[in-house]
């Protein structure tokens, strides 16, 4: 979405503060100083401090989705056969499950949690999540049309399940130093392969 440059700078600074120190550290005066704007400018774009925080939390979620899409598209765009699709899905999951991606999952969880008691934010994040999941379903529709994945697979439901399954990795990442977990990854990859292809191998 296109934003006024000043609006974008305010949003970027708010996100930086949230990711560094948490929501409670967001102060309009600090943003005024950091971005060289006045309080009326902040209120013009976001209505209030609460509106600013909500916009920043929603943007954090959208950025996480965008990063996933970039990884997914760069891999899937090279696929030219069912066998390559199987390898591509494995590569996508390998990239997503890298310990370096753990902070992004945690940020998404924290942003979701911040929607509690904020109906407007819940709507923003919910719409962003549903759009993201739908885009993933559409991306896989091309392969379904080619007959490379199960013809009876509901792609919307699969995308929704996969999103939740990936986010579920926070159970082994929350509150500790992220490390490789090959056993968890293997179970996940086998489940995805079976759902998409109806078997674990093409043999």
Secondary structure layout plus pairing:
Layout: H1 5-21, H2 28-35, H3 39-46, H4 49-76, H5 82-96, H6 102-114, H7 119-145, H8 155-167, H9 182-197
Helix pairs in contact: 1-2, 1-4, 3-4, 4-5, 4-6, 4-7, 5-9, 7-8, 8-9
Notes on the protein architecture:
This protein has 203 residues and is mostly helical. The chain has two domains: 1-47, Arc Repressor Mutant, subunit A (Orthogonal Bundle); 57-197, Tetracycline Repressor, domain 2, CATH 1.10.357. It is 71% helix and 0% strand. It contains nine helices and no strands. It has helices at residues 5-21, 28-35, 39-46, 49-76, 82-96, 102-114, 119-145, 155-167, 182-197. Helix 1 (5-21) crosses helix 2 and helix 4 packs antiparallel against helix 5. The protein starts with a helix and ends in a 6-residue tail after the last helix.
Features:
single chain, Arc Repressor Mutant, subunit A, Tetracycline Repressor, domain 2, 2 domains, 0% strand, elongated
Helices and strands, in order, run as HHHHHHHHH
How many domain units?
2
Class based on secondary structure composition and strand pairing: mainly alpha
CATH topology of the largest domain: Tetracycline Repressor, domain 2
Tell me about the largest β-sheet.
Answer: none
**CATH top level class name of the largest domain:** Mainly Alpha
Low-confidence stretches: none
- Radius of gyration, in Å, reads 20 Å
| Count of alpha and pi helical runs | 9
Q: What percent of residues are in strands?
A: under 5%
Number of strands: 0
Helix percent band: over 70%
Can you identify the CATH superfamily of the largest domain? Tetracycline Repressor, domain 2
Distance between the termini: 45 Å
**Overall CATH architecture of the largest domain:** Orthogonal Bundle
Oligomer: single chain
What is the average per-residue confidence, as pLDDT, rounded to a whole number? Answer: 93
């Amino acid at each position: 979405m296109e934003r006024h440059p000043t609006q974008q700078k305010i949003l970027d600074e708010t996100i930086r503060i949230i990711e560094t120190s948490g929501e409670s550290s967001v102060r309009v005066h600090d943003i005024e100083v950091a971005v060289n704007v006045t309080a009326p400018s902040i209120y013009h774009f976001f209505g209030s401090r609460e509106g600013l925080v909500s916009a920043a939390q929603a943007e954090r979620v959208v950025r996480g989705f965008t990063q996933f899409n970039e990884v997914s598209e760069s891999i899937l765009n090279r696929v030219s056969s069912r066998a390559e699709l199987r390898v591509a899905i494995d590569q996508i999951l390998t990239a997503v499950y890298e310990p370096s991606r753990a902070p992004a999952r945690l940020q998404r969880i924290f942003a979701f949690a911040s929607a509690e008691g904020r109906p407007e934010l819940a709507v923003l994040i919910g719409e962003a999540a549903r759009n993201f999941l739908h885009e993933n379903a559409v991306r896989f529709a091309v392969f379904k049309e080619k007959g490379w994945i199960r013809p009876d697979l509901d792609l919307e439901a699969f995308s929704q399940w996969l999103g939740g399954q990936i986010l579920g990795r926070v159970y082994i990442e929350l509150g500790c130093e992220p490390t490789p977990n090959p056993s968890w990854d293997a179970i996940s990859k086998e489940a995805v392969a079976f759902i998409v292809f109806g078997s674990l191998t093409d043999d």
